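[Target chain]
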Amino acid sequence: MKIALIGYGKMGHAIETLAAERGHKVTTKIDKDEPWPAKIDADVAIEFTTPATATANMLRCLEAGVPVVCGTTGWYSDYERVTAECKKLKGRLFTATNFSIGMNIMFALNERLANLMRGRDDYKVSISETHHIHKLDAPSGTAITLQEQIVEAGKRKVESIPITSYREGEVPGIHTVVYDSEIDTITLTHEAHSRKGLALGALLAAEFLAKAEPGVYTMKDIL
């Protein structure tokens, strides 16, 4: 599979290394402020850039007929616009707030726990997330997803679920959900040890998307 990397920072480098191990080839690399080639020579593009540039990057790939996997967060106010354009062009788009398989298992656990805790107002819920100092959006897209799950499955008001964000050193990512009562505390935590989990998930998504029918996909489609 030929891959175009849109964004060639630390995530881009991690994806490139793992792609080679899986028998794929990175044929195009586009980093910030670099000109785009006249034609993207790739079976799929993987986009990890910034909230300010992600929408334009995805639209550009879709218009060029290149399926795109987007791992950037903070752009979701444009979600309806991007997915509508994808459907109009009969393109292929794969989005996720977190590509880690482990984190997506935590999403499933978070949803189940929220359902079990529905109506238990004696438990106060909070979320914390810690990332490296280079991450631009806060709270993280992953934390927002956790919050949205609790609102929907737990039937709680969004304002009752505070998110605290920390930016420290080179921390790949830590997400914690806490249910705290006078009697006890229940905690769910996912801690990434490196970017490899995200890179693997993005590549699994790219492998899936390269063979998929036109449409919009998420991690639920490959788990």
